[in-house]
Amino acid sequence: MDAITDLFGKRDDFSQMLLIGSLIIMRVVPIVFMTPFLGGKLVPPETRMAIAFGLTILVYSYASVAMKSPLDLLNPIVYIALLFKELFVGFAIGFVAVELYYAMEIAGRALDIFRGSNMTEVQVPELGFRASPLGDFAFHLLIVIFFGLGGHYVFLEAVFESFRLVPIDRFPAMSGGFSVFTDEILRYTASLLGIAFALVFPGLFATFMTDVVFGMLNRVAPQLNAYFMAMAVKPLIGVLFFVFSLQLVLVQLGIRLEENLLFLKRLLALMQ
C-alpha cells in the first residue's frame, strides 16, 4: 500500500485515503452516469464505474489539499451526512450539464409532432429512451458541437474546481440561501426550454403556415381533400426550414453550451 501511495505522491493513512476516496467517488459517480458526453447509458455500467474511479484518482490530491480537517476525526453520522452531501453536489452538476440536451430533444420532438411525424421514433442510447428523429438529431448535434468547442476540458475543470469551492469535509454554505440556489436552476431551465423552441421555430412556423394554406384551400375547393394533401407536405416543409436555419442553430448552440458551462461555475460559486 505504501508503494501505491508513493506512486500518486501521497503517504496518507490507508483509512484516511479510503474515507477521502469514498467521498470523492460519491460526487463523481452521478456526474459520470448523467452526462451524455461521458458515455451516458450507451456505456456499460462497469466502464462508467471505471471512468468514475479514474476521475477519483485524478482529483484525489486536489480534493485532499482543499480539506480543512482529517476525516478520521469525524463522527460516523456526520460522515454519512457528508456522503449524501457529495451525492447532492454531483447530481446538481450532472443535472445542469445534461439539461440543455434534454431541452433540445424536447424541442426536436415538438417539431416532429407539428409536422406529423411523431409516430416515427428512434433510440437514443445516451439517454436510454426513444426520441423523435429530429430530437435525436439535435441531441447528437449538440454532443458534436460540445466536443468541437473543447467543452469537455472546461467541464472537467469545473468538476475539479467544485472540490475547492465545496470541500469534501464541509457542507455547502449556500450563499444567499437554498431558495436562491433552486431559483437559479429553475430560471435557467425555463430559459433553456425557451431557447430550444426558438431554435426550431422556423420549422414550427412553416408547418403552421402549411396548415393555414391548406385550410384556406379546403374552404375554396372542398373536393380536393386538403387535409390528406397537407399530411404529405408538412413533414418535408418542416425539415426543409429546419435545415435552412441550421447555420443559425449551430452558432446559437455553441453560445448556449458556453453559457451552460458558465452557469455551472456560477452555481458552484453559490454553494461556496
Architecture overview:
This protein has 272 residues and is mainly alpha-helical. The chain has one domain. It has helices spanning 2-7, 14-34, 45-66, 76-114, 133-148, 151-165, 178-199, 201-220, 226-244, 246-271; strands spanning 122-124, 129-131. A two-stranded antiparallel ribbon has the order 1-2. The two termini are 34 Å apart. The model has no long low-confidence stretch (mean pLDDT 81).
Contiguous runs where pLDDT drops below 50 for at least 5 residues: none
The general outline is elongated
How much helical structure, as a percent, in the residues? Answer: over 70%
In order across it, which strands form the biggest sheet?
Answer: 1-2
Helices, strands, pairings?
Elements: H1 2-7, H2 14-34, H3 45-66, H4 76-114, E1 122-124, E2 129-131, H5 133-148, H6 151-165, H7 178-199, H8 201-220, H9 226-244, H10 246-271
Antiparallel strand pairs: 1-2
Helix pairs in contact: 2-3, 2-4, 4-5, 4-7, 4-10, 6-10, 7-10, 8-9
